[in-house]
Design brief:
single chain, alpha+beta, seven-stranded mixed sheet, 32 helices, binds pyridoxal-5'-phosphate
């Protein structure tokens, strides 16, 4: 068949191509490719196809091209006879309409992941641009009576009998009733030429590792008709929401982006959801009828699955979706919201009855925000004591105090606040009411006239206890509601639904902690513009990413307290101001991670929290070795600071306590310590020791190594001196290759890597001799980290050390990254290499964030150094530093963190190795304990570093709120080195997320392209 159409194409279009058949239900579609790589789409219409339909599509595409550059649609390739289509005969002798289009590159939206809000916004923009481009297009075939015209969807009413499941039939009936309710409005809307089938197979997406995905094409105009534009948008929405993890947010992104180009009014927005559901109803009814003709094709029924799942989802509520869409388009959340807002501001504020019987304008406000307080200490578990004493900060000053509206808080630690099952899942943090802290038994009055709508007793810990919702009416007849939580349920019992309340009437009293969910006695007062769809189940706390919507639905209730909004409205930190200040206050080479920087305000173990309380899994930071905000360390520090913090010129038992603890972990020869302030300073001192002992100056070290930021440390750090703008290699420094047996110069399994890499010392030593220099020593990160999380082959350092010592040099092990139990099996990396360094350098983790570095060496070396001038470091070895470092080392032991590193590290390494089986871009998984590297390559077969893939992965991990890093000479090695507190659950999140990311189209396309 292909040959026949190839000939036709040659004869009628003069194009010589090879055809590949594409999917198509009734028509034949071919990808046509010329020898020089030009691509076309050949369309052979079904027998009997209406000429007008093809003509309409061709003219529409030409109209779009002529009127807009902003939307990508295929262009019509005229035949050699200058016609848009030809009438040709197929192999069976049947007449067919044949036409040719340009071939648009891209991946079907259906198969593309991730379907991010950004991509969906792009689609909204594209649809609006398409509508603008189609403006003025006319064709008689647009006036078609057919089943997919959404203004004619009512045909399914007569076909609902085909739906055999009575519940589903009933569901569709209600969908169609909603539709019917809107039909007069829909029919009154102006008609335009619309695409009418923007489904996820008619959309193309460009997949790139470096750029955000874009809609690269809208295709298949075969269902065009004349209809209101809102129908077209609703049809696109009907496909966007299917099986999306956040359908309402996805729809909001689509509609908001459309609205930004072609503004919608509230009435049109309110049509979207009923239209969307009726499109899905038409779709399931249509395919049920089709299935009758194709009883052997299970796919017809299976393909209905997503539509049924959406239609049957009980979590999606019409009024809430519509309210969301309105807010996404910057319109009032409900039809009456603007009027109610004005009424509250202009007529209610200042005229309400005092809710607790007294004015609150002098009441102090106190912060429970992520930034403003340290409660709870453990952001995953508010203790009952913490809950009971929440208002205490100001209790001394006044019995009455207020807690802010719209404030992000970490106090909501119950599972009910989590948005996903993991401990580190996103959660609701933003307070949607105001707190009035007052004694138990305080009388609560209605601020305005109203009618009681809901009375409940919520018994869960950290819930409301007694709760009442009152309905109010404005003089214009608009409804709004107020909610009162943490009441005495016994008093509430005397109320009844429908009970009228007068302004100032006492209807409840504040409950005790036993009655109010376990909190310090207070009133939670919340306002809502409408509760259709919310019922009694108002969230009192919102997901920070949904703040705009919830703030619109539940605005600041200050007016009900006769207070100005500012008094109780939380003022968030302004990230752009903080960024600007940073740029003004610091040098430009003080770098921030990520193009959109993260602001972190709280930490706990291996989790970090931003200002809105969003949790991040920290799989990156090795400094907080025993975890962020370790409470035992914090207590020890504050105890010590209450007593003394001075220097090493005075006797204090903490100095030797730390030295003894450290040397107890070392081979006995390494028995003398020097305390300094940082890893850089420790390396600097190590250099001085080596030079003092040997009288030499020259150092041998590894390429891409990093030893610190001081002048001497930079001189031996190829990673810095060879970086763009770096100072270059000093003539006394000699470099060896990183012993990377996967991507380095010598690779396993082919060669004896330990031997070949270590032999390079000979060249260095010969070089030193040739320039008449003298060797001081060898320094290396025992396992190169910046060099790509490399584990040198067994025997490597033994051989290097032997040669260095034979040439009179000392061997320095920089264990800043690898020491103190991170490796699980070993406390120090040099133990794995079975060597005994002359000097060991420690930094970063030993202070868990407190600045301390340590040099440990032999008595002989220390004595030789002591022949020089006094060694003194003002802060090095301060009382506090010694106490901190000793406590850190004790905690590593007491909490068995080395054993945890072994266990969880093994789980991570095994999981990553399994991912390597699945994903071609993982070239190598290496590491030990919680010192792990994932080496990304463009394909496993050739080990070519894939920097773009690694960059993509690390940024996507950040989108999922997981921090990891990049290392290696090619920046293609994912660095995983979390605090040692990380748990099995966290590793599962990390692995599952990595798996998802590596399955995203930008990456899978790369491997597909290489495989083909
Ligand atoms: C291996 C190694 N040595 C030394 C240092 C320098 O430590 P500091 O930044 O505490 O001066 C670092 C810092 O990253 C390091 O990774």
């Amino acid at each position: 068949m292909n040959e026949h159409w190839e000939n036709c194409l040659l004869q009628s279009w003069g194009i010589k191509t090879q055809l590949t058949k594409l999917a198509g239900e009734f028509d034949l579609n071919f990808k046509a490719e010329t020898a020089d790589g030009c691509r076309f789409l050949l369309k052979v219409m079904r027998v009997g196809c209406d000429v007008g339909l093809v003509e309409m599509q061709c003219q529409a595409l030409q109209h779009i091209h002529a009127s807009s550059q902003l939307v990508n649609v295929p262009s019509v390739v005229p035949s050699t006879a200058e016609r848009n289509f030809e009438t040709l005969v197929d192999e069976a002798g049947k007449v067919r309409l044949v036409w040719v289009l340009s071939f648009l590159e891209g991946v079907d939206y259906a198969g593309f992941t991730p379907k991010s809000p950004y991509l969906i916004s792009q689609l909204g923009t594209s649809i609006a641009n398409l509508h603008l481009a189609l403006e003025g297009f006319q064709h008689k075939s647009l006036q078609r009576d057919f089943k997919w015209n959404l203004t004619q969807a009512a045909w399914i009413n007569d076909s609902l009998t085909f739906i055999t499941d009575p519940q589903r039939r009933e569901l569709l009936r209600s969908v169609m009733m909603d539709y019917q309710d809107q039909l007069d409005i829909i029919r009154a809307l102006p008609l335009f030429a619309t695409h009418n089938d923007i489904n996820d197979y008619n959309l193309l997406v460009s997949a790139s590792l470096k750029e955000e995905p874009k809609i690269s094409g809208i295709v298949d105009f075969g269902d065009m008709c004349s209809s209101p534009r809102i129908c077209d948008l609703a049809i696109a929405g009907a496909y966007i929401v299917l099986d999306h993890t956040q359908p309402e947010q996805a729809l909001s992104s689509l509609v908001a982006a459309y609205h930004a180009v072609l503004p919608l009014d509230g009435d049109k927005i309110d049509l979207i959801y009923p239209l969307l559901r009726s499109r899905l109803a038409v779709s399931v009814v249509n395919s049920t009828i089709e299935a009758l003709d194709k009883p052997d094709d299970p796919y017809v029924i299976i393909s209905q699955g997503p539509a049924w799942r959406f239609l049957e989802s009980s979590s999606i509520v019409h009024s809430i979706v519509t309210a969301r869409l309105r807010v996404a388009c910057d319109l009032p959340v409900t039809k009456s919201a603007a009027r109610v807002g004005r009424y509250l501001s202009q007529e209610v504020r200042g005229n309400c009855a005092a809710i607790i019987g007294m004015a609150l304008d002098k009441a102090p406000c106190h912060s429970l925000s992520v930034e403003g307080c340290s409660v709870p200490q453990n952001p995953f578990e508010l203790t009952s004591l913490e809950a009971l004493t929440l208002g205490d900060a100001t209790a001394a000053a006044s019995d009455i105090s207020l807690g802010y509206y719209n404030e992000p808080r970490l106090i909501y630690t119950n599972n009910a606040f989590r948005l996903n099952p993991w401990k580190a899942s996103n959660r609701r943090t933003v307070h949607l009411g105001v707190d009035v802290f007052a004694p138990t038994g305080t009388k609560i009055c209605a601020p305005l006239d109203g009618v009681i709508k809901v009375i409940e007793n919520r018994l869960e810990p950290l819930d409301y206890g007694g709760m009442v919702i009152i309905k109010h009416m404005t003089p214009h007849g608009d409804r709004f509601y107020s909610l009162y939580g943490h009441l005495d349920p016994a008093v509430c019992q005397s109320l009844h639904q429908g009970q009228k309340l007068k302004a100032g009437e006492v209807f409840a009293v504040l409950g005790t902690p036993q009655q109010n969910g376990g909190w310090a006695p207070h009133l939670h007062l919340q306002l809502a513009m409408g509760i259709e769809g919310l019922g009694a189940d108002w969230p009192g706390v919102a997901d920070p990413d949904e703040r705009d919507f919830w703030n619109a639905l539940c605005p600041n209730p200050a007016a009900l307290l006769n207070l100005p909004d500012e008094k109780i409205g939380y003022v968030s930190l302004n990230e752009s101001v903080i960024l600007q200040q940073r740029q003004n206050d610091f040098g430009a080479n003080l770098k921030l991670s990520y193009s959109k920087p993260v602001m972190l305000l709280r930490g706990w173990r291996h989790y970090l929290f931003d200002q809105w309380g969003r949790p991040y899994l920290d799989a990156y930071n090795n400094v907080p070795h025993i975890g962020h905000a370790n409470p035992r360390l914090q207590a020890r520090i504050s105890e010590q600071l209450k007593r003394l913090n001075t220097n090493t010129r005075y006797l204090h038992p903490a100095q030797s306590a730390l030295a003894r603890k450290l040397t107890s972990k070392m081979p006995e020869q390494l028995s003398v310590c020097f305390f300094v302030n940082s890893g850089s300073e420790a390396n600097e001192l190590a250099l001085r020791l080596a030079r003092a002992v040997t009288g030499g100056k020259h150092m041998v070290t590894l390429d891409h190594g990093y030893h610190g930021n001081t002048t001497g440390a930079i001189d031996i750090s190829a990673y810095k001196f060879n970086a763009p703008g770096g100072v270059g290699k000093p003539d006394w420094v000699w470099l060896m290759d990183i012993p990377d047996v996967y991507g380095g110069k010598f690779r396993q399994p082919e060669t004896d890597c330990a031997h070949l890499y270590s032999q390079q010392v000979d060249d260095a030593i010969n070089g030193i001799t040739q320039v008449g220099g003298k060797l001081a020593g060898f320094i290396a990160e025992t396992f190169p980290s910046v060099g790509g999380q490399v584990i040198p082959p067994k025997g490597y350092l033994q051989s290097v050390y032997r040669k260095i010592r034979a040439a009179g040099g000392l061997c320095i092990a920089d264990e800043v990254q690898t020491g103190l139990g991170r490796l699980g099996e070993y406390y120090f990396a040099f133990q794995q290499q079975e060597v005994l360094p002359d000097i060991v350098v420690l930094g970063k983790p030993i202070g868990n964030g407190h600045p301390i570095g340590v040099v440990v060496t032999t008595r002989a070396i220390a004595d030789s150094f002591a022949e020089g001038p006094e060694f003194f470091s003002t802060f090095g070895g301060s009382t506090l530093s010694c106490v901190v470092a000793k406590e850190v080392l004790d905690i590593v032991d007491d909490e068995a963190l080395q054993a945890n590193a072994l266990l969880v590290g093994k789980q991570a390494l095994e999981g990553l190795t399994m991912l390597k089986e699945k994903h071609e871009v993982i070239g190598d998984v290496r590491g030990m304990g919680l010192f792990i590297g994932v080496d990304f390559v463009t394909h496993q077969s050739h080990r070519k570093p894939a920097t773009d893939v690694a960059t993509y992965v690390v940024n996507r991990l950040r989108d999922y709120r997981i921090f990891a890093g990049l290392e290696g000479p090619n920046n293609n090695v994912l660095k995983i080195r979390p605090p040692l507190t990380i748990e099995a659950d966290d590793v599962v999140i990390l692995l599952e997320t990595l798996d998802l990311i590596l399955s995203e189209t930008a990456i899978t396309r790369l491997t597909q392209n290489i495989n083909t």
